[in-house]
Amino acid sequence: MSRRVLLLPLLAVLLLSLGCAAAPPKKDYTVFRSADPRSILILPVVNNTQNVEAPSLFLSTLPIPVAERGYYVFPVNMVKRVLEDEGLSDPNLVHGADPGRLCNLFGSDAVLYVTIEAWTAQYMVITTQVTVEFDYVMKDGKTGDTIWKEHRRVVYSPQQQSGGHPLAALVAAAVQAAVTKASPNYMPLARQANDQVFNAPGIGLPAGPHHAEYGKDPAQGK
Fold first, then answer.
1. Is the pLDDT of residue 8 over 60?
2. Ramachandran bin of 107, using left for φ above 0, alpha for ψ from -120 to 50, beta for the remaining angles
């Protein structure tokens, strides 16, 4: 028997083990299903970065993907005004408030807390690396228990074009990096992060009562 034939079963086992290792662990949705929220209150986000524009920009990306999962979402600008009237103008104070109190203000079933951990563009001479990173936590409005959470980091670096004169390509890459640094586009990365955490099978937000898959999404714990 040839050495090649002997190696084939070993390679098959190796590939199978790599595939299994790459699969992300599935969440336990027992607590979420017990809470069974129908409406979600999205709070102003906490900003742990130096970018003062990040909170309002990122907050604007949250309602649509949550609503598309089948939940009623309270208008975020209205939520912000009501919270300010209640003396909760600082997002850090809002995130530290009792979830039951927050939900009672709006008649919400659950509350979504999001923290911005990174919103940066790092210039590295011939490329600019743009990074966004977020923590997502959802709590039950009745018990205050955490019923779902996720973390996501998305990084983008413009790819250098191959071919042509090496010096011209280097100059073009440096110019592109400078432009990206001067005006980085964070929003596509923010939307990509939201899509991954809310829609990914096994880790995402289960389909809500206004979604066709409500109660039928086995990949998400039902």
1. no
2. left
pLDDT tens sequence across 61-86:
999 999 999 999 999 999 999 999 99
Q: Tell me if residue 47 falls in helix, strand or coil.
A: strand
Percent helix, strand and coil across the chain, each rounded to 5? 45, 20, 35
The C-alpha atoms of residue 153 and residue 134 are separated, in whole angstroms, by: 6
Instruction: Give the Cα separation of 173 and 129 in Å (integer).
Output: 12
User: Where does 36-195 show beta strands of DSSP type E?
Assistant: 39-42, 46-47, 72-73, 110-123, 128-140, 146-156
Question: What confidence score (pLDDT) does residue 24 get?
Answer: 58
CA dist 109 to 40, 139, 189, Å? Answer: 6, 9, 29
The domains of the chain, with CATH numbers, are 25-117+132-152+186-204 (3.40.50.10610)
